[in-house]
Structure formats: C-alpha cells, structure tokens
Amino acid sequence: MNKRDFLRTSAAFLLPAAGIVSRPASAATTAPALIRVGVRGGVDEEIWEVVTKVARERGLNVKPVVLSGSVSPNEGVHNGDLEANSFQHQPYLRDQNQQRGYQLVSAGDTYISPIAFYSRKFKRLADLPAGARIGIPNDPSNQTRALVVLRDQGLLDLRAGFDPFTGTASLADVTALRQKVELVEVASVVLARSLDDLAAAAIVNSFAYQAGLIATRDGIAVEKRERNPYVNIIAIRARDKEAPWTRQLVAAYQSEPVRQFIQQKYQGSVIPAF
To answer: What is the residue range of the signal peptide feature (predicted)?
Structure first.
C-alpha cells in the first residue's frame, strides 16, 4: 500500500456524522469486510504498509488509518469506528482505560522503541565520577523507564514492591543511590540537546533518532526487552479478543516479512518484540 492511499483523517473521522456505524456486539466474532487500524504517522505508518501486504496475501483486508492531532485512536476503537489501533504500550492503555472507561485490551506485541542512556564523555554508567549529573525525563512514564534502567545497572535501588507493570516510579521512590551522582529532571524533548551539558542522559527513542542516536549502537545502557511493559501493542475491544480476525491480524504483524522490515529499516532504533 502506498502512503498516498492511506486515509488521512481529522477529528471528524470519529464523529457519528462521518457515517461510520459501530457493529452490534453480536457481530464481534464475525470478520469485518475491512479491518481499520488506527496508527500514527511515521514508524507505525511505515510498518503497517508491510503488515497490510502480508494480511492481504493471507485473505485479510486491512486498512491503516493514519490519525493526527488530537484524534484519539483509543476513542476510535472504543466507539467502533476502528477495529484496532497500534501506537501505544500497555501502561498508557491501562491509564486510558482507567481514565475514560474504555474496555480495550492488548491483542499482541509489536515492537519496542528502547529508551537508553547516552553520553559524549563516558562509555559505561559505571565510569561516571562522583558528582556526575545524569539527565532523566520529567514525565512519569519515561522517568519510570529511566529509573528502571538505572536500577538494572546497579546505580540505585527503588522502593520495595515497585512493579512497572502496575505503577510508575519517581525520584521519591529512589531508596538508595549506589553511585554518588545527581539525577536531574529534564523534559524529554530537551534531553538530546542537553547531552553536551550532562555526564549522561536517558533519551526517548524518537528524540534520540532525530539526533542521529541509535540505542543499540550508541547507548551506554539500554532498557531490557524481556519482561518490559513498554513494548508497543495492538489494541482491540475486549469482546474481540478471541475473534479469528484478531488472531489473523496479529499473525500478519508478527510475521517474518515484518520482522525483516523493522530490522533493516530502523537498524536497532526500533526492535521487534515477537
């Protein structure tokens, strides 16, 4: 599928006036004639071009719907204007379900965009001297990811019982610093530009990529892929969890052509999670 063929949409897409009617609950197990998947532009849009081709070869008609601005892919799935979406990780979906009353679930994993620590001056976090300033994101989700990496690297301890699958962590949850370093909270969008002023910084993958940094190549510490709640997912309505088309959709994504595309296209900045 060419990008020109993608349906570029606005908020009006999700309104009843657009003429899109939700299917009744009794139709949940019936494969739709067209499976509309809400995605964001960029990485997800590019990957779903390949998924669409694989799905078509397997008899499944998939239409990626590129959403922009304030249009919510989760609202679209909740309302039945979309069959699925692919843009988020489980903690984000959990928060959306709690805040908005959605009943959306993960159908399967897609990829991880790993957060990593980068440095212009040091090759390992263990090499950081006393007093070194380490930049970490100031938003709850990405700060949690950074703190977990530091915990896994042995730089600090987090409060007993903390589980990234069920909650977030902040500086208040750091119970011990095993290296005499200073953790500095900085907005994610600024961290890549601040790297020269810090001993090291945890940079979200999208901003790192824009700065020419690739986690698996340039990172001095990278978050683990195993048992990682921040793996991106395909989200669907809970009632569609066991539908045959859902399994077919996930299988099309978790196919060898898609794996090879991700590995060759993104060279380690995006990593298949299947």
So the answer is: 1-27
